[in-house]
Specification:
Length: 384
């Protein structure tokens, strides 16, 4: 089958790889119909996540048709068109039973923090992902969810990560009616976090980034304020000034390991990898939120250490909430939001490329070319 093949930092290509096989009675094999390139994939692509091995297939956001099932699979059947949450979750462990599907204790035996994630290095279990014609889906009684009749596959694939991650960013923030919410990052997740902040009652939503076309997109899509931090003398001072020197009620870090804006953080976190990513956005979030405010983190950082102003967290009485999104827990609500028109996820998709052009897709997305917000790959065997 054709699949994305990681050959080293900034080197990917489409090549032939062996077909996946059923390895456990709860496995399913899915013929992929859509697969996104995620901003988190760029952390792998750029070499910022440890133990990303040559030969791996990325892709944790995909939909597909069930082609084969193991002997103990009962929740889906051959022929079902499913969306596959990026969390690989057993549904039985102590964390899954709490709805913490991103922290499954069984799907990633190599770690004590994150659960398994498709196509996300061996720090997340070493599972191959969905940027391929076919993918093996473990725990098929838990993760894959049948796409409702009439739902656009482009909407469905966005429900595997972008929509639930943006939504959970706002949910974890505990937004109260009238709150001022600042989102750092105008990538797809930041855009969705800004849009979803209104659903929780925000009175004002501000987005900070440095890419003008993304700022323009989020202004229109999320009906929010958006500012280029390169045009501000100091984004923290700006936020304090525009909130009567109090600070934002909520700050959301939707950037993670590759944040720009601070030379020291860039050198230590992105160039020399002396820390687990550049924590610039997290610094800004901690310093810009008000005393007693909430910082919500969905931006991805590599294990394990970062230079973070923990003293400011303590002295300001800040609540920090962070996690990988528990997609399965949120899906019923988010499917309803899409079907009722409250959310329009497919509007974020700007580029559709055949899987054969995966290298171009990564180059365009990474370099922020052609006003790219979200690229989707279509395998040759997709059939739709």
């Amino acid at each position: 089958m054709l699949a994305m093949n990681f050959r080293g930092p900034k080197r990917v290509r489409a090549s032939q790889k062996p077909m996946p096989e059923i390895k456990h009675p709860e496995d399913a094999i899915v013929r992929v119909t859509r697969s996104c390139i995620c901003g988190s994939d760029l952390h792998l692509y750029n070499g910022n996540v440890p133990d990303t091995r040559v030969g791996m297939t990325f892709g944790h956001e995909f939909t597909g048709v069930v082609e084969e099932i193991g002997s103990e699979v009962t929740k889906v059947k051959v022929g079902d068109h499913v969306l596959v949450p990026f969390n690989i979750a057993c549904g039985r462990c102590i964390f899954c039973k709490q709805g913490l599907f991103g922290n499954c204790h069984e799907s990633n035996p190599e770690a004590t923090a994150v659960g398994g994630i498709y196509g996300y290095s061996h720090t997340a279990g070493g599972h191959n992902g969905g940027q391929a014609e076919y993918a093996r889906v473990p725990y098929a009684n838990v993760g894959p969810t049948v796409i409702p009749p009439g739902m656009d596959p482009d909407d469905a694939v966005m429900l595997t990560d972008v929509v639930p991650t943006g939504y959970q960013a706002a949910e974890m923030a505990g937004i109260q009616p009238g709150d001022t919410v600042v989102v750092f990052g105008a990538g797809p997740v930041g855009i969705m976090a800004a849009r979803c902040s209104w659903l929780f009652g925000a009175g004002r939503v501000i987005v900070i980034d440095h890419v003008d076309y993304r700022l323009e997109f989020v202004r229109n899509y999320a009906n929010c304020e958006a500012y280029n931090f390169r045009e501000l003398e100091d984004p923290v001072v700006f936020i304090k000034k525009t909130t009567d020197w109090i600070g934002a009620d909520v700050c959301i870090d939707a950037v993670g390991a590759e944040a720009a804006g601070n030379a020291l953080q860039t050198i230590t976190g992105r160039k020399t990898l002396l820390q687990a990513g550049s924590a610039t956005a997290l610094h800004w979030a901690i310093n810009a939120v008000r005393k007693g405010g909430v910082v919500s983190i969905v931006g991805v950082y590599g294990p394990t250490d970062n230079l973070v102003p923990i003293g400011n967290v303590v002295n300001k009485g800040i609540t920090i909430r962070a996690n990988q999104s528990s997609v399965k827990r949120l899906l019923p609500r988010l499917i309803d939001h899409v079907q009722s028109g409250v959310l329009n996820p497919k509007a974020l998709i700007t580029h559709r490329l055949p899987l054969e052009e995966v290298a171009d897709g990564y180059r365009i997305f990474s370099a922020k070319l052609d006003n790219c917000i979200k690229p989707v790959l279509i395998p040759p065997s997709a059939g739709m």
